[in-house]
Amino acid sequence: MKRAVAFYISGHGYGHAVRMAHVIRCFRELDPGRRIVVRTAAPKRLFPPDVAVQPAEFDSGAVENGPLRIDARATGSTLRALIRNRTGIVAHEASFLRNERAALLVADVPFLAGEAAALAGVPSIAIGNFTWDWIYEPLLAGDDDSPELLGAMRQGYGKMGHFLRLPFGQSQGFEFFPRVTETPLVASVSRRETGEILRDLGVAPAGHRMRILIGMRGGLPHGVLERAAAGLPECLFLEPGRVEFADLVKVSHVVVSKLGYGIAAACAAHGTPLLYPPRTGFREDAVLEQQLRRYIPMRRITEERFLRGDWKPDLEALAQQEPSKHQVPVGGDLACARIIRRTLEET
User: Fold this and answer.
1) Would you tell me the crossing angle of helices 261-270 and 15-30 to the nearest 10 degrees?
2) Separation between Cα atoms, residue 173 and residue 133, nearest integer Å
3) Are 213 and 248 in contact (CB under 8 A)?
4) Containing H/E element for 183?
């Protein structure tokens, strides 16, 4: 009987869970019959229905103050509480791994997963476009215990044998991993024809209205969409949920969203332009902005105009940008799945 693979996935946002769901689907095709168990605080609905998803808290993530700001003080407090309790958390998760007879742990990308795997004697792989210590570093700047907190995080990562680095992330700061491998993008890619998708949406394929997709998790702040729609009567706002999200991105003329790996990957994979407001405290946004511009037209709208629903000038300016001549390499889900299987064969 094949031993299990345990996926430890950050519940902060949906990007970690969605991309690991793609990796899990590819891995199951490569290694059918292998038991897969997911430990996460993310919703079960984001994963394949026949995968065992168990709620677990082993990651502090970032505390957001609204959709556009990180609360640095609250984030630091949450991290401190996690690290104070790490001995018990690690022991609990190590016991879980032993009981599951896990052959491998795959993490995206909680640092305590490395500690748990090491205590249980299980090899581990990390997958991500950043590590949490890199995200926390500026948020903890000036705090007396910053070196201790960051050191604890890096210690956990250092116990993982391999880091699979996705695009759109930090370019350095991986020296504590014994091995780092670059991988292509993990993204939802639509395989359907545009006309077929539009028919399912009840939209005339020959229509000339600009199709706008709101890609923000949790939706927009109250009243923003109503004000934006009132100022854009000639545009058509698409509703998530009627077809697959990747299909919506494919048929949209523009996506309006805050930045984040999931939306950046989806837009890059389909060449869909992105209009986005600035965020405060999200270190990864500067990297995403710089790297994503190579693949799609992008425009930053001021927070004031965004919340006022005054989108029309920025949408018109975005529509004037030339499409990119560059195409982002995709298929990172299969690349990661192959490395996971190869690791199992080598252990």
Assistant:
1) 60
2) 9
3) yes
4) none
**DSSP secondary-structure letter at 327?**
-
With beta carbons less than 8 A apart as the criterion, state whether 13 and 262 touch. Answer: yes
Residue type, 158: G
Q: Are 237 and 245 in contact (CB under 8 A)?
A: no
Distance CA(268)–CA(303), nearest Å, equals 23
- Provide the whole-model pTM: 0.95
H-assigned helices in 42-84: 72-84
Token pair for residue 322?
A: 């030339």
Length of the chain counted residue by residue: 347
Q: Are strands 4-9 and 102-108 parallel, antiparallel or unpaired?
A: parallel
C-alpha distances out from residue 145 to 81, 83, 149, 152, 290, Å: 13, 12, 6, 11, 31
What's phi and psi for 294, nearest 5 deg?
A: -65, -25
Per-residue pLDDT of the chain (347 residues; tens, 9 = 90+): 799 999 999 998 889 999 999 999 999 999 999 999 999 999 999 999 989 999 999 999 999 998 899 999 999 999 999 999 999 999 999 999 999 999 999 999 999 999 999 999 999 999 999 999 999 999 999 999 999 999 999 999 999 999 999 999 998 899 999 999 999 999 989 999 999 999 999 998 877 899 999 988 767 888 999 999 999 999 999 977 779 999 999 999 999 999 999 999 999 999 999 999 999 999 999 999 999 999 999 999 999 999 999 999 999 999 999 999 999 999 999 999 999 999 999 98
In the block, residue with structure tokens 């007396």: 144
Question: Kind and range of the H or E element at 54?
Answer: strand 52-55
Domains and CATH numbers, the chain: 4-186+331-346 (3.40.50.2000), 194-319 (3.40.50.2000)
